Amino acid sequence: MALVQIESSRDGEMKILDNVTRITFYYEDQPEQGFIGSQLLDLMSNLPQGWSSVVIGTPWSEQRLDTSWHFTAVNPSDIEML
């Protein structure tokens, strides 16, 4: 996983909302999808319980506005072994 900055362009100005490594939840059968900015925040706010996804992204400081975010389904029982 990478340390990433989540930024919002609300009101036409880029503002850093968070700077963390993320583990989030979503259904196992969802395909890989790319999300940046508010789309990523919306996804994390409306995730079902029971499945997890590791958020992998490139730090904004290295590739600003890069769209390489992606989500990979992981069974929660696998995480317990980590």
Automatic annotation (TrEMBL):
Identification of the protein by name: Uncharacterized protein
Native organism: Schleiferilactobacillus shenzhenensis LY-73
